[in-house]
């Protein structure tokens, strides 16, 4: 693909050369005008909640958090931007490591690179990834540092507006980049941004999750700062509508879920998540709910508000009924009849009971449940995926009862899902013939490694947020203590290998930014749980009646 040659002059820049193919975009003066800082807002930081109050109030905590105004608040860590809290050496180390990953464009911070490991080839780990930046952004927001998040949102929005081509095919206007990199041209003393929309990715798959994370982060920024002026900009409103238009377009679908290719999200390699993966559906649901809050009720916005509301109702019904698995539902599937043709069919997807994997009967506790990995015609992927289930709790896609059941499952299957290093990205691992056929003999995704059952410290922040929301902070505290025993000593690896997560991953990068940021966000949320409000949504009472299946978790 031919790069776009528009460029702007920039002074005092120092960035390494980047040789991969991609699209080069300018940041023009009009766009820089949008980067002006919002007015500062100061609010006194709220004290930590007592653990007993979590147990007593459980989901009621979100109603309280939604009413807090966390603008301008900083956590009490002893960092260059905050003080007054007894500093933890690992926290200090984490902040120093995180700040070293900051990327600057025209002397302004615009994000953090994926990893700062100089011992191995950089590949694309020296780029700013949209999904990877989210925990970094939350850490900065919780510490009262809003500028880098605002700049990131605006830069990625500007990149979205450019024409996107993969070979001879033009991508949809709403597609957000997977990543971008600042290029410095010393001969002309200019800087440019190079974006990757999937044309350089493994398998050449566009990132479905990037647009969802962008909307979620825009809402987090608005909630944290108390400033809605960024979200109300015509440019941001248009960006949201473009993303939503991609997802809400009519087609041949008979389900409200989004059909996706393998490798379109955090699991960006072939791992059998094609179809309707839980990670995408949960992020889709959360992004729709955030958009409903952020969209203006003007002529253009009102149309999308109505479409979003309609889709949310259908999506919540579908996910809560057909993706949910507990002991009762597992037994029902075990007894399914097949080849049912009428509207009264119980086995609506014609799933063969003999396709139930042996491991799921031992894995399912008497009390507990989870959203399975995928549901499509004649196929159910019963694997546990951490990110999708945690986002389901935070977005209130999971009902309060389902959210409690997910936490029951984590507690019951602690050794399998947490082990010695939080947190399994999925469970169980694919092995032998299944690994060969599903992954295509991927040497990076061997059993209990990387995306195939590896342990990812970044997931700690999602688990912590889910624990706080469900009134189980002691689970998060236990997981954080496990991470603190090794994470800094091991130089912040990207992931760990092995059934228990005992070994630093065989190809794991050190000083992985989202491992660092995920730890900081988890610590800050436990210290000041009111931070949860920027990344969590309370239950929509209008959707509660949609769940009809009996649920064993209430027994």
Automatic annotation (TrEMBL):
Gene3D superfamilies this protein is in?
1.50.10.10
Any one GO molecular-function label of the UniProt entry: endo-alpha-N-acetylgalactosaminidase activity
The superkingdom listed in its UniProt entry is Eukaryota
Keywords, A to Z, come to: Carbohydrate metabolism, Glycosidase, Hydrolase
**What task does this protein carry out?**
Invertase that cleaves sucrose into glucose and fructose.
Which family does the record assign?
Belongs to the glycosyl hydrolase 100 family.
What is the official name of this protein in its record?
A: Alkaline/neutral invertase
